[in-house]
TrEMBL record:
One Pfam family per UniProt: Abhydrolase_6
Assigned GO CC terms: membrane
The organism's place on the tree of life at top rank: Bacteria
InterPro entries noted in UniProt: AB_hydrolase_1 (IPR000073), AB_hydrolase_fold (IPR029058), AB_hydrolase_sf (IPR050266), Epox_hydrolase-like (IPR000639)
The species this protein was found in: Saccharothrix violaceirubra
Gene3D superfamilies, per the entry: alpha/beta hydrolase
Domain AB hydrolase-1, chain residue ranges per copy: 38-279
GO biological process, one term: acylglycerol catabolic process
Transmembrane segment boundaries: none
Descriptive protein name: Pimeloyl-ACP methyl ester carboxylesterase
Residues annotated as signal peptide: none
């Protein structure tokens, strides 16, 4: 079973950020270093640990790995202003991080999962010097109507009125109705609880607003990628319940990007099916790095 607690060789480090330190997991490339760094950005309520099953295989393939908590998530410092957590703002915050990695002589491959994909898009549009972009389980615009959108709306109401602890308590009540939740190890459930409670309230509210209001910037991103000669990959699970695979395929076509659907996988390929995900990611990234 792959989870956020899967073992890996990465070291816990802090990177400089505009609002304080950005918490990260960093692993050097093993064997032949391809001279590229894969910068992994998590989704809403997520963290760097969401990429734990991917760290060692990516490093073993010759890539340096840096997985971060976005500003305001879990162990990263963040702003007190909700507006600073919109994808455009967070993307701009990450330009310096990408720039510092590039200044070390690394070609930076940006990978964003879900909301992290929107942030990756914001970073590219803000001028981050990237050598490739992977959008994973990320849609072209705001989250469409559905169960996830309903849960987001309810969560904001509780968070604003009663605070983060009550929001977490109600979330666990909702999760308790899911048989899969009951089967998770207590250690993992404790991690989810701790991660949520340590996240910034302003960050949760601001990212929630972003998920409900982000405009369709695909055409703008397409122009930026084309003029910068930056390749792009869109990948998602067959059963993604956030943005439909059809909408992500359409986004890929508009971006002139590679597109892959992982059979039998939902919204979180990194923990649901890391082997299948890596079978798509690694060959694509190697192709991008060829002269």
């Amino acid at each position: 079973m792959y989870t956020q607690l899967s073992p890996h060789r990465a070291q816990r480090v802090d990177l400089p950020g505009r609002h304080g330190t950005i918490a990260a997991l960093r692993a050097a490339a093993s064997g032949r270093d391809l001279g590229a760094t894969v910068l992994l950005l998590p989704g809403f309520t997520g963290s760097k640990e969401d990429f734990a099953p991917l760290v060692d295989p990516i490093a073993d393939a010759g890539f340096e790995v840096v997985a971060v908590d976005l500003p305001g998530q879990y162990e990263s410092a963040g702003s007190r202003l909700e507006g600073d957590y919109l994808p455009e703002r967070l993307g701009a915050d990450l330009v310096d991080v990408v720039g510092k990695l590039a200044a070390e002589g690394r070609r930076v491959l940006l990978v964003g999962h879900s909301y992290g994909g929107m942030v990756a898009r914001g970073a590219v549009l803000a001028g981050a010097p990237t050598a490739g972009v992977t959008l994973m389980s990320t849609g072209p615009e705001a989250l469409p109507p559905g169960d996830r959108r309903d849960a987001l709306d309810l969560g904001e109401t509780v968070l604003r009125a009663q605070g983060i602890e009550e929001s977490q308590r109600l979330n666990e009540v909702r999760q308790a109705m899911n048989p899969r939740w009951a089967s998770l190890p207590e250690e993992l459930r404790d991690f989810y609880r701790t991660r949520f409670l340590r996240s910034s309230t302003a960050g949760l509210l601001g990212m929630g607003t972003g998920l409900r209001s982000e405009p369709d910037l695909v055409a703008k991103l397409s122009r930026k990628l084309r003029t910068s000669c930056v390749p792009c990959l869109v990948v998602c699970g067959e059963h993604d319940d956030a943005w439909s695979p059809a909408s992500q395929r359409d986004m890929a076509e508009r971006l002139d990007a590679d597109f892959a659907v992982l059979p039998g996988v939902g919204h979180s390929p990194g923990t649901e099916a890391p082997d299948a995900l890596l079978a798509t990611l690694l060959p694509t990234w190697r192709a991008w790095l060829r002269p």
